[in-house]
Amino acid sequence: MVKTGLIGGFLIVFSSLIGTITKAQDFTKEDTLRGSLNENRIWWDVLYYDIEVNPDFDSKTITGKTIIAFSALGGQTMQIDLQKPMTVDQIEYNGTKLKFKQSGNITLVFFPHKIKSTNEAPSKITITYHGQPREAVRPPWDGGWIWTKDQKGRPWMSVACQELGASVWYPCKDHQSDEPQLGASITILTNKDQVAVGNGRLVKKTIEGEKMSYRWEVTNSINNYNIVPYIGAYENFNEIYAGEKGNLDCNYWVLDYNLGKAKKQFKQAIEMLSCFEDWMGPYPFYEDGYKLVEAPHLGMEHQSGVAYGNEFTNGYRGTDLSGTGWGMKWDFILVHESGHEWFGNSITTNDIADMWVHEGFTNYSETLFTQCKSGKEAANAYLQGCRKNIRNDRPVIGEYGVNHPGSGDMYYKGASLIHTIRTMMQDDDRFKKMIRGLSADFYHQTVTTGQIENYIIAQSGLGTSLQSVFDQYLRTTQIPVVSWRLQNGELTSVLVNAVVDLKMKIYVPITPNAGEWIMFTNQKPITIKTTLNEAEIASAWNRNIYVNYRNTPTK
Predict the structure, then answer these.
(1) What gap in Å lies between CA 241 and CA 14, rounded to an integer?
(2) 8 Å CB contact between 444 and 450
(3) Are strands 87-93 and 299-300 parallel, antiparallel or unpaired?
(4) Both ends of the chain: CA-CA distance in Å?
(5) 8 A C-beta contact, residue 170 and residue 88
């Protein structure tokens, strides 16, 4: 129910609900099986994936084998995820074939007895499988396996499967909360005239009959959807970045005819790494190196093998998403997808509903890079310009337990929330320490929104009232409004369109060159003397705070 009323000459809007009401989404049994930790998932913990894949370009099919090393707390029925129409052929445990039942997108595996193991003596199952995986329609957004050709008509293959899930092409425990903490390997079989690139480091290259075999390995924990093959006519060049943790190997794999363009465009990589290490702490995967790989789609944050498809141009495919011009000073995909190495890959949310932690902070890394490159005013302008992309269609946080991300506003609204907090702190040194602290304290961990909120509340110095700010921007679609009026040299302002307990610091202009940061409480007017006229006040509000300002003169 919505009511209207008058307080102190202002039109105030009250709502009995938090946020805009949207039609509830219907979730299926498949959504729950994928998105929840049920009794067939909770008893075992993935330690390592050893994946082998052999794609056939002409038939658009793959055959594969996945070995899953795991520790077990005691269970007898295991849920393995592999999306139809992929088919499981055989599952073995300690040399014994296991019974299994494939139903929809899951396979239930039946052990002859309860399995208990430890990290010192992990258990292993080997799954062989085959099929025609879902083909990507519009990667990376509508993902799957990508079968395409390069400009010379040669096969070019890869995978993009965030949200859709890694189980679209290999059997795994397809839930963000359970990363293989000991890493993963991917062995890719190709024709001899092709090159295969994977995550981490190339540890073995051999000839196997008419095929080439490339084995890549990561030693750090990794998200399931980040493990991908790239197959094409690749050439490689590299350099060393002298970073905070020593020398970082930087490798770049691009199609042979793009080598010259890449050597010019990828000079931004070292500049990006230097900026991000300063603001967000050391690159999180020194052991596995940093890598950009040209991909047959726009881009993805594949850990230690970042997918790049921005056509070696600045901006986002040659455009500036902020509309300010500052976004044309750097390569959007190189910067954004690499920013995910800190937020999304090193720090990963347990549930995809909290994906704003990945995208909000990574989107904000664009603002940080703009500041490194062009100064703070440019960064402020870039951030504010990007707000036009916010839709406020539904809350940023999605539904838990059903593999449901929140609104796409997790990008720009998430970044504006972070910039709002930074602006209210009025202490960039403390803000930088807080962001670097997040990277250090949650290094290689899976987290919840609550953990991130509590950390920022504790480290920002803004107090527990900051929880109401998180609630406002993450859990509702309402954007607070500062409704103000000027009368006889007094500026009266009130915060409206807000959650009941919202408290936030807002800059109130007083003179041409000064103002005061005042803690506003929802629907409680504040009056302060000012020497400014209405036009000067309208232009002097701090736009880095994500609120709307509305002049409501007395009638």
Answers:
(1) 55
(2) no
(3) unpaired
(4) 28
(5) no
In a domain, 505, yes or no: yes
- DSSP secondary structure string for all residues of 513-554: TEEEEEEEETT--EEEE-S--HHHHHHHS-TTS--EEEE---
pLDDT of the residue at 121: 80
State the 10-residue block means of pLDDT for the chain, 555 residues long: 35 35 68 94 97 98 98 95 98 96 97 84 94 97 96 98 96 97 97 97 95 98 98 98 98 98 98 98 98 98 98 98 98 98 98 98 98 98 98 97 96 98 98 98 98 98 97 98 96 96 97 95 96 96 97 80
Q: Does the pTM of the predicted model rise above 0.85?
A: yes
> What does 449-468 look like in DSSP terms, one character per residue?
HHHHHHHHHHHHSS-TTHHH
Are 249 and 273 contacting, i.e. CB atoms less than 8 angstroms apart? no
Q: Residue 102, class by beta-carbon neighbours within 10 Å (0-12 exposed, 13-18 middle, 19+ buried)?
A: middle
**Are the beta carbons of 305 and 198 closer than 8 angstroms?**
yes
Residue 294 contacts residue 450 (beta carbons within 8 Å): no
- The C-alpha atoms of residue 180 and residue 287 are separated, in whole angstroms, by 16
φ/ψ bin of 311: left (φ > 0), alpha (ψ from -120 to 50), beta (otherwise): left
Q: Is residue 527 part of a domain?
A: yes
Of 415, 448, 274, the closest CA to residue 347 belongs to 448
Query: 222-268 pLDDT, tens per residue?
Result: 999 999 999 999 999 999 999 999 999 999 999 999 999 999 999 99
Of the candidates 485, 493, 549, the residue with the CA atom closest to the CA atom of residue 523: 493
Structural domains in the chain (count): 1
The torsion angle over the Cα atoms of residues 442, 445, 449 and 454, rounded to 10 degrees, is -30
Tell me how far apart the alpha carbons of residues 302 and 292 are, in angstroms, rounded to a whole number: 9
Instruction: Return d(Cα 462, Cα 446) in angstroms, integer.
Output: 25
| Nearest residue to 448 (alpha-carbon basis) of 372, 354, 385, 368 | 354
Measured CA to CA, the distance from residue 264 to residue 81 in angstroms comes to: 42
- Given the structure tokens 């921007």, which residue do they identify? 473
**Residue entry with tokens 């959650």:** 499
Q: What is the dihedral of CA 139, 200, 268, 437, to 10 degrees?
A: 100
Q: Is residue 490 part of a domain?
A: yes
Strands 306-308 and 299-300, sheet pairing: antiparallel
Consecutive H or E run containing 75: strand 61-81
Domain housing 525: 2-17+480-551
* Residue 232 to residue 155: CA distance in whole angstroms: 6
CATH code of 530's domain: 2.60.40
Report the distance separating Cα 286 and Cα 63, nearest Å: 32
Q: How far apart are CA 142 and CA 152, in angstroms?
A: 25
Query: Do the domain assignments include residue 546?
Result: yes
- Sheet holding 526-529: strands in order across? 526-529, 490-496, 481-487, 548-551
pLDDT, tens digit, 9 for 90 and up, residues 365-415: 999 999 999 999 999 999 999 999 999 999 999 999 999 999 999 999 999
